[in-house]
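2024-03-11 09:14:02 DEBUG pipeline.ingest accepted 1 chain
2024-03-11 09:14:02 DEBUG pipeline.ingest length=143
2024-03-11 09:14:03 DEBUG pipeline.predict start
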Amino acid sequence: MASQEIMTKKEIHNFGIEVVFNQLQKEGHQIKSVNDKIGINPQIIANINGNLSFIAVRTDCYPNKGNLEKKEHFQMIEHSKKHNAVPYFASVGISNVAGITDIERSIPKKGAGFHIAYEGLLIISESDKVKILDIKRTAQFNE
């Protein structure tokens, strides 16, 4: 019988790291280290496509998904620059599969099954490094 004890913040955090770690391994990336301490970035250091990569992982419960605070966003960029690494963010959301109502889905119980919302890694960038295309202008050239 599954335990009805609610997962701690640390257990939720570790669950999200495990989701990302397993996906990285499945994709064949080399994991160099994992740090499961809350508030210390990055959580995962890996070699992705030949590049040193720093990955911040955040996990939250339904209906939310993990969120990287603005301060952490810039810290990840600066830390990555110092080490010539690519900064990534992995947002993970978990939902109690046994939940019928929104409130029940939002309660992460130990031993329960979970729906996982994870769309992969997002590169963390500074806005001045991103080029925005003028869609209308591009469309004119293609006509």
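2024-03-11 09:14:41 DEBUG pipeline.report Residues 9-142 form a domain with the Trna Endonuclease; Chain: A, domain 1 fold (CATH 3.40.1350.10).
2024-03-11 09:14:41 DEBUG pipeline.predict end
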